[in-house]
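Lab meeting, item 3. Inverse folding demo.
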């Protein structure tokens, strides 16, 4: 990789590669798991019901286990969103033989989660952020870079501006100044594809190089309002997380190390709980979410170790 920022070139970085190819027929037998990918799935019995979770990683060239002396990692994106209002309409028909008429009954059921001030959702994100940092530091002995340092880097501005809504029907909030890392709109997708064809490898890779980072972690928490037991209102959580970092080429390119998801039931609540700014910790099941992120990562790391991922990376990172 070369710095061309002062040479009048259109892009500040480029990567020069020389490749040659040849083919030899090879017969490979055995399972693909551990060679191409690793996956874990599980369920967890919680007070609110049964949660399910999954975690996946690619092969050992791309997917570095967390417990391999990660020097610099940081939370690059953390968001919460949710549908807070839902209306269900059911229509039934019944013939009344006494009157000779057909009776039509329409039942409308609405589910409405309280519209809260931004401070509640912002505090919830701050609490999740603190727990994620503690997990990376205590469980994996990683050096965690503060999120403000990441978002304060000028390269970070190249990511996508997130939604910011707080209405009776929908909530969308991001931690502090974090942005959306993945394109969702057509124009963003086309622009991202164009950038990927340029040798600077896109925003994430340039940011990783500029900050001398090993990896970034991003977490998306989504809720769907629904009806619970005894005519209560609950929020159903759907969580996804991802860690992106350098592969063993250490050439400044970035790849997804692993990703995971968590789904489960909601818990009922009372309006009086909102006298506490941290009420969403229980209602949004923060502790369960963190428990299952940790559990899925621990199980994935154990599966990676069975296939020698840690040994491969110990050799790759040896000085």
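The presenter then showed the designed sequence:
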């Amino acid at each position: 990789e070369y710095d061309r920022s002062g040479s009048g070139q259109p892009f500040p970085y480029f990567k020069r590669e020389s490749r040659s190819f040849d083919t030899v027929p090879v017969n490979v037998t055995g399972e693909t798991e551990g060679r191409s990918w690793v996956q874990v799935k599980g369920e967890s019995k919680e007070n609110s019901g049964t949660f399910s979770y999954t975690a996946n990683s690619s092969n050992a060239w791309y997917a570095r286990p967390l417990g391999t002396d990660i020097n610099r990692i940081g939370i690059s994106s953390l968001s919460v969103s949710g549908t807070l209002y839902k209306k269900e309409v059911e229509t039934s028909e019944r013939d009344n033989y006494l009157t000779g008429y057909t009776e039509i009954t329409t039942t409308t059921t609405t589910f409405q989660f309280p519209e809260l001030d931004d401070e509640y959702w912002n505090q919830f994100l701050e609490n999740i952020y603190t727990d994620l940092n503690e997990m990376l530091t205590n469980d994996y002995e990683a050096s965690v870079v503060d999120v403000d340092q990441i978002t304060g880097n000028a390269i970070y501005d190249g990511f996508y501006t997130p939604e910011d809504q707080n209405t009776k029907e929908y909530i969308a909030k991001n931690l502090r100044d974090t942005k959306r890392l993945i394109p969702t709109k057509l124009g963003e997708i086309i622009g991202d594809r164009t950038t990927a064809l340029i040798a600077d490898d896109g925003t994430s890779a340039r940011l990783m190089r500029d900050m001398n980072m090993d990896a970034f972690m991003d977490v998306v928490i989504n809720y769907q309002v629904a009806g619970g037991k005894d005519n209560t209102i609950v929020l159903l959580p759907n969580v996804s997380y991802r860690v992106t970092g350098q592969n063993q080429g250490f050439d400044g390119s970035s790849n997804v190390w692993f990703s995971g998801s968590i789904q489960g039931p909601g818990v009922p609540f009372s309006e009086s709980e909102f006298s506490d700014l941290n009420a969403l910790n229980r209602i949004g099941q923060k502790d369960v979410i963190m428990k299952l992120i940790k559990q899925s990562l621990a199980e994935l790391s154990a599966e990676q170790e069975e296939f020698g991922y840690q040994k491969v990376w110990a050799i790759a990172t040896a000085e």
